[in-house]
Input
Amino acid sequence: MTAIPSPGPGGADAVTLENCDREPIHIPGAIQPHGALLAFDGEGILTHRSENAAELLGDALPVLGERLSPAHFGGHARIHAALADGLALAGQGGGEAVPLVSEVHHQGRTLELIVHTHAGAVIAEFETWPEGADDLAAFAFKAHRGMDRLRRLRTVDALLAAAVEEVRQLTGFDRVMAYRFRHGDSGDVVAESRIDALEPFLNRRYPASDIPAQARRLYIANTLRLIGDVEAVPVAVLAAPDRAAPLDMSYSVLRSVSPVHIEYLTNMGVGASMSVSIVVNGRLWGMLACHHMTPRRVHYSVRMACDVLAQFLAANIRAVTDRERARRLDEAAALRSRLVGRVLHADDVLGAMSAAAQEIQDLFQAHALLLSDDGRQAVHGPVDATVARSLLQWLNREVAPTQDRLIQAHTLDLLPPALRSQLGSWCGLMALRFDQAGESWMVLLRREQIETIQWGGRPEKVYVSGPRGPRLTPRGSFDAWKETVRDAAVPWSETEVEIAHRFLDELLRATAARTAEIARARSHLFAILSQNLSDPLQSLAQAASVLDDGGSVGDAAISERIQASSSRMQRLVAQVLDISRLQNGGGLALQPREADWSAVVNDVVKEAQAAFPGTRFIREIPREFGAVVDVDRIRQVVSSLVQNAGRHGAADEPVLVQLYERDGHAVLDVSNVGEPIAAELEPLLFDPVRRQSVLSNQRGMGLGLYIAHAVVEGHGGSLQYNYAEPYIVFSVSLPRGDRAPVDVSGRPAEVG
Output
């Protein structure tokens, strides 16, 4: 027979920190000494047994290579029945089965017999009865109480906090922690129950390397693991001479422990440990980790109760996380709908999106947001403007419009070295190109992960390190985690990426629709411009023709015609230039000063009276009315409103112009009798690009209202339309205080 010992610390096969991720921990060739192991093949032939089997179970055992017979185990009926059931299960397919558990009394001992099948083998483990195991009467009640408590909780944090308390009550361990895995398989302690003498481990984070990949696989396959005595000497498993392959002990309850893990527990002063896996959707979501400062064994039935509680916990965690995901998707849909609506109807896409900047950051849990559209950029968050500009330039230069419109990264490796040095701690980005071919981006940024983790108190305790160094201590483990996450941010979750794709699809459709609509409206605008310029140009041509003929009669009339046509063309060109400035973010720079608004209104009404001699204008204006305004721009506003009223008012009906104070505001009402504007056109009234000649203006371009609206907003006021039968009323309201007007661009803070 052949012994398969666990690799020693100094031999050629020694386990080190460099190779522990490749350690074959499922075939250790040894078990923990508080039990014995026997393994049979499908024919009932004993293939493996632990070296202590005869000492624990007596001499009436099959020898290695011998077939099981009724005389073995002294003919113990319950043992033979359990083994027969195991052999029957193995014969049905050789897959893994739920363990068969029996309590047996043999050789003067009370033993727990656990039989399971794996890879065609039947493995029987005889676990000795732990001290205090007779106090089991109350544990079923405790387990039921624990699950009932979990059933009532509705958050992950509350579930985990309750779970550690309940497991500690069931098992009596000195410390029980809920360990939750994060991105990249790192994890942290998110809940803890402990005796007062122990230092807290709550909120400490550890690297993925603390639990190597092969250990994670075992934690999923075999969800409960007990190490009863950290200092116990493993017992070798012997194999029959014809069995060269080591015994796979993935599902064994007695499987011995990796020397690296033993050293870790020893460095922490732990005498015994138990871990219970929390598996959600087939993934190792977290663990309940138990520590005791002295050796401690927990009865198998209690361990199974903890395992069931962990499964119940996992089901509740899944329900909570599913609800949270649904909530985030609903929240994202609502914000997406609002944002798309703003983009569709806004004159300024950048301003519309900036208005929702904080909501976007909160939704994606981003620390900053960059927006770019039509050559302009807006920064929201503590990002340097130069850095933001460099990042956007890189995106425009290096990412072709035909590439994936959504780019995500949580490390700086994606970016060129020069840009990496500029970004500094901004390590995570998700960039959405939301137009068809231009330079329009929504870029979400996250800081380096180290800056976003709240360290739960640096431990003052000095841990004794073993031969593998300080890495195998809580403090050293955390330092190792910090080294692995340099220049890396918290990755974007699957839900966040899904939300981003939906945002991108909707924004692409919205910007495409908006671009098409604006193109149509601009064509219409140019047609109106052409039509409105044709009349003054024709008048100028006729006047020029008369002058060419050398006629002197009517020279004054010709001069007047030339002057009127030229003025009209100047007004049209000025309006188009104003709109161009507003549309392109240039703004209408205001120059406020103290002025008499009454005088401005009187002058404008006199001019209108001359232009519309058949219309009566009624003024209700104070003798003097001081205000801090840009006089020329306010004159433009008043003129636009009065001219509109005179042009579109009903024949033989007066135009009413009223100036007064209300609630600290200067209010100008211009009213004329007429039919109300159609309800579906009201939202477009101040939008010259989209409306189709709302006021049926046959002589002007209908741009005055848009410019007037921008000027009034620049003064911190409002311009509104309402219908008070039979009057169409346009009202200007401006604050009369010392507030100086602002640039009329209406743009957010911009880069460059």
In short: The longest strand covers residues 109-118. The longest helix spans residues 494-548. The two ends are 81 Å apart (CA to CA). Confidence is low (pLDDT under 50) at residues 1-12, 691-701, 739-752.
